[in-house]
Write a structure and sequence with these properties.
It is a single chain. By secondary structure, the chain is α/β, with parallel strands linked by helices. The protein has 14 helices and 13 strands. The chain folds into two domains: 2-168 and 337-360, Rossmann fold (3-Layer(aba) Sandwich), CATH 3.40.50.2000; 183-335, Glycogen Phosphorylase B (Rossmann fold, 3-Layer(aba) Sandwich). 37% of the residues lie in helices and 16% in strands. The chain has a seven-stranded parallel β-sheet, with helices on both faces. Helix 7 (196-209) packs across helix 11 (306-315) and helix 10 crosses helix 12 (318-335).
């Protein structure tokens, strides 16, 4: 198939969790013989943090503005068999309108990597990247969240075909590596006001009470007003290619969930899957549906307070810590790899890959 993806970013993971999934998905599409074009808005905040990507991820093109997008890539969009627009694409409403009037032969898909946030925006008449009247123009709505969210999409917002399409990992990128343990507990994530109280309670306060141990937080956009405990190291950015080394240097990693995701449930984060695939034991906040992805107590440890975290750091036997990480990694690789997502996408579109396609890694005739 010819696949065109319009996403927030595939070149830079600065300030977003989309990049890891887009890279894994694009690479898996190419590996399974599809032709991929990824279109990304050239924004100034990503430029200093872009990674060099090879052809394994398909053809990647940056565009300066909507005029450049509409002019340079109209033929690609018209000829595509599958068009995927992600959430938080700049000027996404105008982009969706363009796809609706231009992509007259391909299957149009909205890929929502922020479903609970999107629903909240729609309910508050905030149409930053999607408007209600445009939702029916998409043939499928792939959602990072499942559960009751899918029913809400169908009933309230008239989504034709809502499908749970969770975040994903690339086993060739996300795997355990040997490294010296530098930090007792770490966290990787962009600043978010609704997550900060949890970070304060579960990491900052833990660090304050365990002052002889080292902790780490990586991610951009944290306000200068934040007071960092002296034993918490701070990184502005860790490129995706260094994530496995970052996770490997943590004895435990912390998973925190935004309020919109917690309220709706069944909304795993990219970092949860990524850390599990990298073999790092995970301590997570509590949210409905986490047991669908990792089993609490065996594959992930759920906490509600600083004391919960301290008990785990102090009391969990080392053999159980490593066994838990191994079980979590096996669970994620069994169900949440990019290849599995692409196979689901092929089934949704009625595409059947042939053995020749998979062996040659070249696009077949269009279905």
């Amino acid at each position: 198939m010819r696949v065109v993806i319009l996403g927030l970013s595939i070149t830079s993971a600065w300030g977003n969790g989309h990049t890891v999934t887009f890279r894994a998905l694009s690479k898996a599409l190419v590996t399974r013989g599809h032709e991929v074009l990824f279109l990304e808005r050239d924004t100034p905040w990503y430029r200093p943090f872009r990674d060099e990507l090879n052809g394994a991820y398909g053809r990647i093109e940056l565009y300066e503005d909507l005029d450049a997008l509409f002019t340079r890539f109209e033929d690609d969009v018209r000829q595509a068999d599958c068009l995927i627009q992600g959430s938080y694409v700049p000027q996404g409403v105008e982009v969706a309108r363009w796809l609706a009037r231009t992509a007259d032969r391909g299957c149009r898909i909205f890929y929502d990597l922020d479903t609970p946030v999107t629903l909240s925006k729609l309910e508050n008449h905030d149409y930053e990247y999607l408007a209600p009247e445009l939702i029916p123009t998409f043939d499928y709505y792939l959602s990072f969240a499942g559960g009751a969210v899918l029913d809400k999409l169908a009933k309230r917002f008239k989504v034709k075909r809502p499908v749970a399409f969770w975040c994903t990992v690339d086993p060739a990128v996300h795997y355990p590596v040997q490294a010296e343990t530098r930090w007792e507990l770490g966290y990787l994530g962009t600043y978010s006001p609704d997550r900060q109280p949890k970070l304060n309670a579960l990491l900052f306060e833990t660090a304050a009470k365990r002052s002889r141990q080292a902790f780490v937080v990586a991610g951009p956009m944290y306000p200068e007003t934040i007071t960092w405990p002296p034993n918490v190291l701070r990184f502005e950015h860790v490129p995706p290619g260094q994530h496995r080394d970052f996770y490997a240097a943590q004895r435990f990693t912390l998973n925190l969930t935004r309020q919109a995701m917690t309220s709706n449930g069944y909304s795993p984060s990219t970092r949860l899957f990524e850390a599990a695939a990298c073999g790092t034991p995970i301590i997570s906040d509590r949210w409905q549906g986490i047991d669908q992805f990792l089993e609490p107590g065996r594959e992930v440890l759920i906490v509600d307070s600083t004391d919960d975290v301290i008990r785990i750091l102090r009391d969990l036997p080392e053999d159980e810590r490593t066994a838990m990480a191994a079980r979590a990694r096996a669970r994620i690789l069994a169900s949440h790899t990019a290849e599995q997502r692409v196979i689901l996408l092929e089934r949704l579109l009625g595409y059947r890959a042939t053995a020749q396609t998979l062996n040659n890694h070249h696009p077949q005739n269009h279905p």
